[in-house]
Amino acid sequence: MSNRFKKIFSNKSQKTKMIAYFVACYPNFEQSLEIIKKSIDAGVSICEIGFPTQEASGEGIVIKNAHDHCLERNITLKDTLKLAKAVRDYNKDVGIILMGYMSNIFRYPIDNFVKDLAAADSDGCLIVDAPHELKEEQQLRNALNKENLSLIKLVAPTTTEERLKKLSKLFSGWVYSLNFSGITGSKSVDLDEVKKMIKRIKNHTDLPICSGFGIKSPEDAKKIANAGCDGIIVGSSIVDFITKNLDDTKLPENIGKNIENFVKQLR
To answer: In terms of CB atoms within 10 Å, which of 28, 46, 110, 116 comes out highest?
Structure first.
């Protein structure tokens, strides 16, 4: 775990950390940066910045539409890294990970991506479609380890105990616990199942466990925060809020102010 992640999760002033997902450069670079800055001001501890891709097979319609919006405007992985660097210039303490799919990183290619990720002073990445058996995942993990960066791993309710035991040896930074299997933004959360999932993972690791998928409201956030996790992850609701407030985004500070209020409610 990076020193920045250690500091975030050891901070007792916030019992449960808030992790927020943003589609990079949505609706554009300037507004996206303002949205993330205001979200940090409102209490976000870790920013997941998703790089736009056509491979977004794990995303629901809300996030997929945001990806398509950015792809139509030729937003690239380089633009995402530029955004991450701008976020780091704004705040030295917030956690930053890039999130996406292996094909984009493979084409970058992998070693160059990790060098640029380190140069942006980010903390790691999460690759949705890269099981640990994949040769490219192993190459990425090795390159990240050399830079003391984390490869965040996903654990789903369908993950077997045998596989979870193997994965636990590769965990780095913190663990992303999925509240249900499927695509983002598609279901509501069963609290009992979330508690079981967190307990299962805790049997295999001492790293922080952060719970995501299906957190749509302040009520959901409070409920999941009390399920035993160290952090909650909110994605589709934030992207949906941005989409519904696009009429307010002629100036970056307008959407920034709106998102700050929304994030404060979740916090």
So the answer is: 46
Are 193 and 223 a contacting pair, CB within 8 Å? no
Contact 33, 254 (CB under 8 A): no
Nearest to 138 by CA among 162, 97, 169, 108: 169
Q: Please give the chain's pLDDT, 267 residues, in tens.
A: 778 999 999 998 888 999 999 999 999 999 999 999 999 999 999 999 999 999 877 788 999 999 999 999 999 999 999 999 999 999 999 999 999 999 999 999 999 999 999 999 999 999 999 999 999 999 999 999 999 999 999 999 999 999 999 999 999 999 999 987 655 554 567 899 999 999 999 999 999 999 999 898 999 999 999 999 999 999 999 999 999 987 655 666 777 788 999 999 999
Q: What's the CA gap between 67 and 206, in Å, rounded?
A: 34
Distance in angstroms (rounded) separating the CA atoms of residues 247 and 257: 14
Task: Report the DSSP pairing between strands 209-212 and 231-234.
Answer: parallel
- Residue 15 CB neighbours (<10 A): 10
200 exposed, middle or buried (CB, 10 Å; 0-12, 13-18, 19+)? middle
Q: Is the pTM of this model over 0.90?
A: yes
Tokens 């102010």 — which residue?
A: 257
